[in-house]
Amino acid sequence: MAIVRREKNKTYGGNNMKASCLKRIFVTTGFLILFVAVLFSAPSKVMVVGWDGAVPGMVAEFAAEGRMPTISWMMENGNFAYEGGLPVVVANTNASWSSVITGSFPGTHGITNNSFHYSGTPITASQYSGPHTLQAESFAVVAESEGYRTAVLGGPWASWTANDAGLTGPNMGWGNWHSKNTVISNYDIEGAVLFPFLYMDYYKVELVDAELQKIHQTRLSSYSDPLTFEMKIPTYHGEDFVSNLLIVDTTDDAIVNYDLLASVDSEWSKITGSIRVGEWLPLETRLPGGKRAGLYVKLLNLSDDAQQIRLFVSAMQSTQIFPEWLDTEMAEVLPIPINADRNAIIGGFVDEETFFESCLMEIEWYEKAYQYVIERTNPDVVFAWFWEIDEFAHRMFGFLDKESPVYSAEEYQRRYNMFRKVYQQLDKSTEALWNSFGGPEESNLFIVSDHGFVSYWRIANINERLARVGLYNSSDPSSSKAIAYSAGAATQIYINLIGREPTGVVSPDDYEAVQKEIIEALNSWTDNGTKVIARAFTKEETKDIDLAGRSFSLFNEKSTGDVLAFAASPYQFDAATPGQIVTDAVPYFNGQHGYLFGTVPEERGNIRTLFAVGGALIKPQIGLPDTVSLVDIAPTMAAILGIREPATADGLALTEILFEKELVGISN
């Protein structure tokens, strides 16, 4: 790690520090006065960098290989949970990150899954979480109330508009999207399927001969007849993004072999960029109102005779940052944003390398964006979130499982190397952010994930299971006795209770009987002799769920289901096919989270979280308890800053790993 740091015992504790405080010796006639008075104030800045979906064992392995110097520094000079931290219940993205920023169990902060239901709203209405739905106090809000500057950067930690989170510091959302991702070709792509659930566009084009006069204007030479087509991307603001694309042969060898794609301005007066197969080209534009935006084009393939050309076009994006002046400024100076697109690879429109590259490019963009915010606004408290490991693992984690139907021994090493590089890039980006924040001399850093990852290959349709025992009505869901809302391997089933739900059909007298019927239907569910459900809990039982001897709560009167259940490996609940109770996983969706800790076989993966901490106030190698969890982060941050923890925090401050701030005074 490229950060120079003094040893702890020379900086913040022990006799060496006190001896170094002898600043002046005053000698006068007849006597000597030695006076030292030092008000010791250790650096109190603190940052959390979230690596969504990072698996602690993979982090430790890649660090041991020398690929992750920031993590290696943490292991040597800070504290690293080698077995991982305990996930919260449930171990899904929004419930977990909400626990990080509040120090509260999901039952306390109310975000009980990525998708859930609020009792008292229509039984068919699901909720999606965000800071505006938090029922617990955020640490960022506490820090601002104590006079500290904050920056809350990215995804589930942020909300849009930013004032929904009650913050005044910089706040970054998920990003502004102005179009879908698009694939363009002039031929039928073998094996590609535009599934109804894919959020992308695909269309075919016809190449035509380019007008020679226009080609001469661009001053671009071609040794075969130049070809052209118009790329047209529909946008959400109503005006298509249009670019003239030119295909040329740059080799003077008397053979037709097209090898270059060039972008031409609207007047055909100049080339605005060019790429060869495998390369990416950023294209900029201005949105209505003048804000800078853009997209990326990758040339996936171009046959010598141009009978086959295929492009991947990323979604048009622009920055999304509060306050407005910062958004305006960053839109002009940052590169064009890009997202790691899942849709095109699931549909078979792009290759693994393209998806992998988009993940790396997105990490690099967020590194630059977060770094700019930190250096421009000088915050004391930062929450920064990267989601690319999660997105990559959802598509690729099953390829690492030798028992998975998608496993290939021939492709294993290549795919595992992709994981290495994604983790390595995150380590590098985290180092850059920490340097911008002051590094370990001036600040403290947590590197954590919200959950680990598990391989799966079967999709279980929870509402179809309920339908087959007479509890769910797919033709009129509002008349159902119960409806399930699921995410990953966790589901909550809400009883349509009279007096609680607007369209209630179950009498309060029948509540316990229906609840029991649901649990029996889940516990007896098998697929070719294999149990589909690992554990099921009543709502009351969610008050105390034991994980490795530590109690976790998911109980929330408003948002917890009447039954909570977890899939057994190799099952999960997302992307279920209506009317089918169990199906095979869809292409490139073979990794998942949300499983209950302790129910996943080791060969399938690990649901524990990454947990590392180090910096100016962190004692080295004290060791983190096996039961350390995400809810302990906010209370520990409060201890570092010397302020109160969030009022609703359930976690514990890790005071044993902290150096004490002290007042040192010596006089004679």
Describe the 3D structure:
This protein has 668 residues and is an alpha+beta fold. The protein has a domain at 178-318. The strands form eleven sheets. Strands 4-38-23-3-22-7-8-21 form an eight-stranded mixed beta sheet, with helices on both faces. A five-stranded mixed beta sheet has the order 11-10-19-18-17, with no helix packed on it. Strands 12-13-14-15-16 form a five-stranded antiparallel beta sheet, with no helix packed on it. It is globular and about 80 Å long.
Topology:
Elements: H1 14-20, E1 25-28, E2 31-39, E3 45-51, H2 56-64, H3 69-77, E4 79-80, H4 93-102, H5 106-109, E5 115-116, E6 127-128, H6 139-145, E7 150-153, E8 171-172, E9 176-177, E10 181-185, E11 200-204, E12 208-209, H7 212-218, E13 227-233, E14 241-248, E15 260-264, E16 271-275, E17 280-286, E18 292-302, E19 309-313, E20 317-318, E21 321-322, H8 324-333, H9 343-346, H10 352-377, E22 381-386, H11 388-396, H12 409-437, H13 439-442, E23 443-448, E24 453-455, E25 458-460, H14 462-468, E26 482-487, E27 490-495, H15 511-523, E28 526-527, E29 530-531, E30 533-538, E31 545-547, E32 550-552, E33 563-567, E34 571-572, E35 582-584, E36 591-592, E37 605-606, E38 611-615, H16 633-641, E39 663-667
Parallel strand pairs: 3-22, 3-23, 7-8, 7-22, 10-11, 25-34
Antiparallel strand pairs: 1-2, 2-39, 4-38, 5-6, 8-21, 9-20, 10-19, 12-13, 13-14, 14-15, 15-16, 17-18, 18-19, 23-38, 24-36, 24-37, 25-35, 26-27, 27-33, 28-29, 30-33, 31-32
